[in-house]
Design brief:
Blueprint: H1 11-14, H2 22-40, H3 45-49, H4 51-60, E1 67-70, H5 77-85, H6 120-134, E2 140-145, H7 152-161, E3 168-174, H8 185-195, H9 203-206, E4 210-216, H10 220-231, E5 237-242, H11 250-254, H12 284-298, E6 302-306, H13 310-313, H14 316-321, E7 326-328, H15 333-345, E8 349-355, H16 356-359, H17 363-371, E9 378-382, H18 399-404, E10 410-412, H19 417-427, E11 435-438, E12 462-465, E13 470-474, H20 479-485, E14 492-495, E15 498-500, H21 504-513, E16 516-524, H22 529-539, E17 545-551, H23 561-568, H24 572-583
Parallel strand pairs: 1-2, 2-3, 3-5, 4-5, 6-7, 6-8, 8-9, 9-11, 10-11, 13-14, 13-16, 16-17
Antiparallel strand pairs: 10-15, 12-14
Helix pairs in contact: 2-4, 4-10, 6-7, 12-19, 15-17, 20-24
């Protein structure tokens, strides 16, 4: 049997093999992905599902002259391997290695950087219109999933594209799942189309697209034939492709949620290597999920909302136990926030759980629909701070800065799991303002976290260590790094907890007691927690030395969180050196 993949280092090489050999190449490419991700980890299921589609696209189209855009990018591993990055693929998502997503400065074949969903149609349409204006003869293709196409931005792109003559092909990769199963009326429509039971007019034809499909996304002959046909048609076109997420690995096909990004597993059997987590502290997301359910059982007004992340946020526990009061609204962050606002007007208590990086998409709704009306929506902001291997598109480092300027909004960052539970309890017993509660990805520090609830007084910080001369002011879970960093250094440590409102009384005491202050946060330095302390000092004309330490004014790459914290100087070791130097 030929080893076809061995000799393919670019789409030009791919186009030299016969169409009859493509199924063999698909087997080899799928196995290559499995073997690398089994030991290196990554987003497995999505890429396995589009192996044939990836091959067909690069076989039919003259990439990179023809422009190909992948939505989100979870499914782009095969694309990376076929476009000259095969020998580097083992570095995928590792520090200084390949990005886990398409990235423009990584390859000319990555025509648009992605990581967030539903951007591909707008980006590809922009490229297609640019080609028209410049008189270029190029094809423009975007691949979008059935979860992403239900997002508002995707509809905006479709709506505009349908009234243009742009040479655009939208390919719907329909596998009925994003990270969790797709939801909503559009999902049901697509299911009916696949079953042949859809009686209404074709929604995409109604938007002026030349519709084709559904096509079996694992039938290379059919894919190549249909792509060649569509290549000869001008204007906006839509190809509906049916795929199976995790195709080619039995366990990944069976448990598509777990094998979206399964961690390390046996490449031959597909079995995930289990970890003994019995004695470890829980993940913050699970503390949120279990606490919300506990509170909801005793407070009938509590509602849970998440945009397409019931598993990642652990809202799944409430969805299973109280399904009528927990909502997965799909990839629709703006809708999630405004729906929560609407519920709050009627006396309900919505806990709206959104990852920090995705909450950026609902900024206007936070300001206009929640804060302006002073509605007590409870935002639970997961994955705050550095998140690791997903990199710059997913680091939740901007929320402190972009939320701090919004009137009426309370902002709290728990130091540990107990404080997360207590602020959730506090928030549902009658706050008069909206509140944002931010917490990191991963595990906390408190194995015995299910302590009795205690209310937290809004706008209060706590002193964790006494000391002379220098004081460290921290916010949130990074306070635990500070505790480790200051051992033996005789300096004060204050966990401010609230960035808004600040504990003014405690701050006056700190500035009068300590000559030098250092603020430490896992958010951007510009406009964040440290900036708030500097503003306080300027307002009250304090002359103390204040050093701000956090995320510098640059996008931080991907890699293990420990590596990234070391890189930017917020690891316990680097903080120890910094604090020691300031005390000398």
């Amino acid at each position: 049997m030929k080893n076809l993949l061995k000799h393919i280092n670019s789409p030009k090489d791919l186009r030299q093999i016969s169409a009859e050999e493509l199924p063999q190449l698909a087997k080899e490419l799928r196995q290559f992905i499995i073997e690398v991700i089994a030991s290196k980890e990554g987003h497995l299921g999505a890429s396995l599902g589009v192996v044939e589609l990836t091959i067909a696209l690069h076989y039919v189209y003259n990439t990179p002259i023809d422009l190909l855009v992948w939505d989100v990018g979870h499914q782009a591993y095969g694309h990376k391997i076929l476009t000259g990055r095969k020998s580097e693929f083992h570095t995928n998502r590792q520090f200084k290695g390949l990005s886990g997503f398409p990235k423009r400065d990584e390859s000319e074949y990555d025509t648009f950087g992605t990581g967030h969903s539903s951007t591909s149609i707008s980006a590809a349409l922009g490229m297609a219109i640019a080609s028209q204006l410049k008189g270029e003869d190029r094809q423009h293709i975007c691949v979008i999933g059935d979860a992403s196409i239900a997002s508002g931005m995707a509809f905006e792109g479709l709506n505009h594209a349908g009234v243009t003559t742009a040479n655009l092909l939208v390919i719907l990769n329909d596998n009925a799942i994003g990270i969790d199963p797709s939801v909503g009326a559009l999902k049901q429509y697509l299911t009916n189309v696949k079953k042949g039971t859809q009686k209404q007019d074709n929604i995409f034809e109604a938007l002026n697209f030349e519709y084709s499909g559904p096509v079996d996304g694992h039938d290379l002959k059919a894919l190549v034939s249909e792509l060649k046909r569509l290549k000869s048609i001008d204007g906006p076109k839509f190809l509906h492709v049916i795929t199976t997420k995790g195709k080619g690995l039995r366990q990944a096909e069976k448990d598509q949620v777990k094998y979206h990004a399964p961690g390390k597993f046996d490449a031959e059997t597909g079995d995930i290597f289990t970890k003994n987590n019995e004695d470890l502290p829980p993940k913050y997301q699970d503390v949120f999920g279990h606490t919300l359910l506990e509170l909801a059982k005793s407070n009938k007004n509590i509602i849970g909302i998440t945009p397409a992340m019931p598993t990642g946020s652990s809202l799944k526990y409430m969805m299973e136990a109280l399904p009528e009061r927990a909502f997965d609204v799909g990839i629709a962050e703006q809708h999630a926030v405004t729906m929560a606002a609407g519920m709050a007007t009627q006396g309900l208590i919505p806990f709206c759980n959104i990852y920090s990086t995705f909450l950026q998409r609902a900024y206007d709704q936070i300001i206009h629909d929640v804060a302006l009306q002073n509605l007590p929506v409870i935002f639970c902001i997961d994955r705050a701070g550095l998140v690791g291997e997903d990199g710059a598109t997913h680091h939740g480092v901007f929320d402190l800065a972009y939320l701090r300027c919004v009137p009426n909004l309370i902002i709290f960052a728990p130091r540990n799991e107990i404080e997360l539970r207590n602020i959730m309890y506090t928030a549902q017993i009658g706050l008069e303002h909206p509140i944002a509660i931010r917490y990191p990805r991963g595990r906390g520090v408190t194995p015995c976290w299910k302590s009795p609830f205690e209310a937290i007084e809004i706008g209060t910080g706590v002193q964790l260590e006494q000391g002379e001369g220098l004081a460290v002011l921290s916010i949130g879970a990074i306070s635990n790094k500070v505790t480790e960093a200051i051992r033996g250094l005789n300096c004060g440590h204050y966990d401010m907890r609230f960035i808004k409102p600040l504990d003014v009384s405690l701050l006056h005491t700190i500035f009068k007691t300590h000559s030098t202050l250092i603020t430490i946060e896992d958010g951007v330095e510009n406009g964040g927690f440290g900036s708030a302390i500097l503003e306080f000092a300027a307002t009250h004309r304090y002359k103390n030395d204040v050093v701000v330490k956090g995320i510098p004014d640059e996008f931080i790459e991907h890699g293990a969180i420990d590596n990234l914290q070391q890189l930017i100087g917020v690891s316990a070791h680097e903080l120890h050196k910094l604090i020691k130097s300031l005390k000398s």
